[in-house]
Design goal:
Its EC number is 1.2.4.1. By secondary structure, the chain is an alpha/beta fold. Helices cover 37% and strands 20% of the residues. β2, α2 and β3 form a beta-alpha-beta unit.
């Protein structure tokens, strides 16, 4: 009998392990950002790396996001494989000139003569009472920039394997994490394999597909059994994973099977990434559907500081359950 060996670890530890292993086998891999060195990172993702690899490879920078990404671009042009940490996606707005006009475009504008093997990794999402300037989900901005690959990490498997793949690529990658997941524990099978260019079927079903990514995946999984028992249906749950390129094959294959689908996303509904998922699936599967799609998303408001209002502004497990059950009963489930 074959047994898969599991290790349970914090999400932040899986990211740390990925960086450590890549730095150990490839001296061109360096990491830079605010407090990534001696302090070990704001969320302890780089803990221990400064002592192991020294200040020339684990580089503390000033609080200057545009410079952090710009320096990383220069490092990549010079033959290194930099990992630029932005303390939070909210601060990445200060680096958008470098991300949009250089990081995303230099390889294309050089006709492929320039390779840009670099990763900009950052957490995003609603935390707990950090207010509107520190609680944003900005995946639509990054996924809409041609020339960038955009990965999301929802657990230790996607964090570990996804980040290692991102570091190995010769293309620039924006690697999105979620702040509330750093101190959550997940299984990381020692013999696991994950292709970060593919979506993952976390639970198979035949009557309804629920798509999600990052923290919302776990909120869906908390209520999926309750949804199934209430509606008497079999639900398929898929972690979307890569946002650009989107794994449309896995998504559409599921919808062709179940005939119904729901998107659960934390970002505001207007202009949210779920709209891209819906439109992409409808182009391929319109005549396969037995019901209109449902999007469960954040409200179109800046995230409030007040905890009660904060929870009202985003999907929660209870909201996900109630909205899917209501939609299901209206659409023949």
């Amino acid at each position: 009998m074959y047994f898969v060996r599991y290790v349970k670890m914090f999400y932040r530890e899986a990211l740390n392990l990925a960086i450590d292993e890549m730095m150990e086998i490839d001296e061109s891999v360096v990491i830079l950002g605010e407090d990534v060195g001696f302090y070990g990172g704001n969320y302890k993702v780089t803990e221990g790396l400064y002592a192991k690899y020294g200040e020339k490879r684990v580089i503390d920078t000033p609080i200057a996001e545009n410079s952090i990404v710009g320096i990383a671009i220069g490092m990549a042009l010079g033959g290194l494989r930099p990992i630029a940490e932005i303390m939070t996606a909210n601060f990445a707005m200060l680096a958008m000139d470098q991300i949009v006009n250089n990081m995303a475009k230099l390889r294309y504008m050089s006709g492929g003569k320039i390779v840009l093997p670099m990763v900009v990794r950052m957490p995003q999402g609603v935390v707990k009472q950090l207010a509107s300037q520190h609680s944003q989900s900005l995946e639509s901005l990054f996924a809409g920039i041609p020339g960038l690959r955009v990965f999301t990490a929802s657990d230790c498997i996607t964090a570990y394997h996804g980040l290692k793949t991102a570091i190995k690529l010769d293309d620039p990658v924006v690697f999105l994490e979620h702040t509330l997941l750093y101190f959550e524990k997940f299984d990381l099978p020692k013999d696991s394999f994950y292709n970060p260019f593919k979506a993952r079927v976390l639970k198979e079903g035949k009557d309804l597909t629920i798509f999600s990514y990052l923290k919302m995946v776990h909120d869906v999984l908390k209520v999926v059994d309750k949804i199934e028992s209430t509606l008497n249906v079999s639900v398929e749950v898929i972690d979307v994973g890569p946002l650009n390129p989107l794994d449309l094959e896995t998504l559409t294959n599921s919808v062709k099977k179940t005939k119904r689908f729901v998107i659960v996303e934390e970002n505001p509904k207007h202009g949210g990434f779920g709209a891209q998922i819906v439109s992409s699936i409808l182009e391929e599967c319109f005549y396969n559907l037995d019901a209109p799609p449902l999007r469960i998303a954040g409200e179109d408001v800046p995230i409030p500081y007040n905890r009660k209002l904060e929870l009202l502004s985003i999907p929660t497990p209870e909201k996900i359950y109630l909205k899917i059950v209501e939609w299901g009963k209206q659409n023949g489930l």
